[in-house]
Fold NADH-ubiquinone oxidoreductase chain 3.
Amino acid sequence: MFSIIFIALLILLITTIVMFLASILSKKALIDREKSSPFECGFDPKSSSRLPFSLRFFLVTIIFLIFDVEIALILPMIIIMKYSNIMIWTITSIIFILILLIGLYHEWNQGMLNWSN
C-alpha cells in the first residue's frame, strides 16, 4: 500500500517538474512589437474603429453556423433511426429538412448568397 502511494507521488512530482521546465524553456526572450500588438481581421488597430465593415462577412458566418448546427442535428437522426418508430422518424426528418430548404430558399431569394454585388 505504501509503495503505491509512493509511486503515485513520484509520478506527480516528475510530471510537475517536467511541466515547470517546459514552461520555462518555451518562453521567448525577444518580444517583437508586431507580434505583441493585437491583430483584428487585417485591420490596423491604431486607426479608427468606425471603419465601414461589409455585412457580407457577417452573413456568411451566420449561414455557416446555421448549416453547421444542421449537420450536428442530422447525424444523430441516422443513429436513432433503428431505435424509433420509422413513420414518426420519417415525418420528423422530412419536416426538419423542409425547414432547412425553406431557409436556404429564403437566403437565396434575398440575395444573401449572391456575391457579385
